[in-house]
Amino acid sequence: MPIATNLQRRGAVYYLRLRVPRDLRDRLAQSELIRSLRTTCVRQARHRGAMATRAALALFETVRERGGMLSQTEIDGLLRDFYVHELEEDRLGRLFLAKVDPRALEARVAARPDHEQQIRGDLGLGRTERFAPWM
Fold first, then answer.
1. What is the chain's percent helix, strand, coil content, to nearest 5?
2. Is the pLDDT of residue 134 over 50?
3. Where are the domains of the chain?
């Protein structure tokens, strides 16, 4: 069964591969866009691939609409943004919306009083070497 349209696996990592429409190939100086999705998980690859495809379609539309008004430097900037922006947005979103294992959270909360007591004891004895990065 195919993974998904426009997704390829090279080694363990998934890539997005999109053909540039014929009318934009000269302006973009490429016949296809290939971008690593930076994941080995097929589920993440499908999600990131869909996001990157939307970004590519927006890129194509922008170049079509403003094509005559864009310099080659601006087009190169749009291409660079295409390769960087969507994956960074996905990474940041995952950092803030990451699922927390309830058992791991409970274990950390349960260990907190012991940890706090250890910190107070260290500070009371003048042992500050473990806090040096924050001081």
1. 65, 10, 20
2. no
3. 7-99
